[in-house]
């Protein structure tokens, strides 16, 4: 029985409906027909039975469909063209080029954007700095000090017209007394009496400057004399005003994202026993042509479940293997606690390695060396429940340890979890749901809704429109995709390659297959998909099937079976932390086989297929390092459950093998597909190299002092398919690329070897740079690029210096701009805008040469565009040229049969960075718990904790440098090893 849902959602049959009303199948609370409701009412249905199927996507899919969607007068063609015409009066420079015009290609569409008009204040905005003294011991007390400041009789008269960031910035709609010094007696919580021991702080508010709204108005109007005006000071000041309600009533996580853990406005979603998810909202001002706007977007993050810290440790005691329980480094850094004996709020610094009974410190009050257990018994009359089975925890201020029993620490609500968690499926919502969340939930909790103004700083006379901005967009047509044979036209951003041959087949004289299996305990048999040995018929059938897939697609590999290496049985992970023994066995076996091949003068493998029982956090990156860095063998991985499943999954298996074949051909130097000539004209006018640059940084779980990894990829010919990479490590968390000149020279030399000439044009797509760093790219990375050209200006290449014309385009995916179709005629079946949607008016920069492009189809949730900004241009690119060209090139991504969200050059740089992380997996993927010894004093010579930290980070970086060694093996340097 089907029961495919209508507006109320399918009931799931007796089976597996998905989600809850009105968007999916199954009842919202699970039961026989579906899973729990979940975010966006889409819980996954569960057993019993097998009927059900998906509930229908009932009801409207378009946000605010039927409401008028009229473009404002500021966006009519004559006004826009007048702006562009006025730019002709300004000098033309390659740095931060002016918009040369607006794009014209494509079918016009009308869209909504999650931007809301903001009325500027009439009067000036006064900026102040805030200094709090004494600074010693200030730590996390600033937010509480600002709370006490607002209650001060000296501050209260000014509250309606001031806003601040709870740290060091304050703005006012009126001039404040200068100087303004306010003395405060500090307490951690309301209701705690001020005593003689309560610390005293002096808050000094000092005038910085005055900002005039008229200057911003001239800039927004596109006044050419205001081109050099910096809108950021006033924008950031007014951000304080718009965010004031959220700042006082919520929790800020990152930059401009606010969450309200104690509010019932958004549901609490239990993610793990120790984590829950909460929806919040991003809110930030942006200048647009003739209109200041606030960008509001829904977002989600994980919070630590509040409760007693001892209970949290006991939750994980079963996995501690007999030692004292601890927490992950990321969890420790996320937690703030309230002590139950003194009601102080403190950051959790570390989990100790000794118990309260075995942790001693010098205590003059009780006659010398005293245990933590004895101290709390004598001082506070507290008898501990866990003196011997739980570790003490450090709540010190950074210079001195302060050991506290875990049971006397209560985890505060609102502690954002400081590590990556995979919440994509839970956080994904359709456009209509996202739009309603922003307007119906976001505006009230942010204090932006009428009755206006709810803004706490009402004296600024700032008002926010509650209607989303309406902007013009266009849908660009897809290019034709060419395999060997007839061209293919993409449908909804993708295409099918059944029975098609790759445009150019790669070549491998030999290839190997390595199957890995886990060592299973005697009382448990292996799963059914485990390969027993290299004579296992299932292994041979799989390999022959994959070989047939490669050959039918046009890959040139030998007939017959490849070399089937002996099956490697890996020691159990429980007995082999970090899988070091397993990787040593794999490494030694591969080295021996390579030596045998050399002795027999057999060809090296063009690639090695590795069969895994599962994706492993150590084995996968370890093999990538062995192959790419140590032995020079390109590797591909398959997960056995996906290729040795039941016959009913034959289509899925065939698709899986096809996807791997795309990677094989690309690694071997082949060309999977090309674009029609017309789509490549913009790149083939002159000899052109396309470059992608990205940097990846150590995450919250990495060892402190770990390096960042920079990647530069570049095309090698006029097909713009092959993009080999250069990789370097550099100081951690530095976004600008340190070894850029050297890496760019490597890429240009390879291009020269392939083409017998250096390119005359270079297009650089730079990923991972925030808007605030655009100028740093010009100041730091542009000179490195010019230096690379200078290094190649040698007499052997002619008398003229080598100097290609250069364009640099920044690619931004971390923005919060979202675009909503206003009618189903502009949308796909889920309500998303369609592939090829582009926006360059209404919410883009006044003077900047930027645009938002969605080249791909949204697979789940709300599709997101990429924000492209041309920050340097010597090639005089037109709007249509860069927009249509970037869109069409997004169809050239080698390992997929679809357009991708980010232009492949930048996408490949990101992939290369991720591959580089595999080589330093022991540093970057480390999530060892933060523990500290149980003695109260620091080791001699490390009295300064800052110096100790710097020394530790230096040693980690040096160890990472040693592990990195010379980087890539020569055999893979000219290949797309990372794909």
UniProtKB/TrEMBL annotation:
Domain PAZ: residue ranges: 312-413
Region annotation (Disordered) ranges: 1-74
SUPFAM superfamilies for this protein: PAZ domain, Ribonuclease H-like
Ranges where the Piwi domain occurs: 607-921
Recorded coiled-coil stretches: none
InterPro entries: ArgoL1, ArgoL2, Argonaute_N, PAZ_dom, PAZ_dom_sf, Piwi, Piwi_ago-like, RNaseH-like_sf
Biased composition (Gly residues): 1-59
CDD domains the record matches: PAZ_argonaute_like, Piwi_ago-like
Name of the featured protein: QDE2 protein
Species whose genome carries this gene: Ephemerocybe angulata
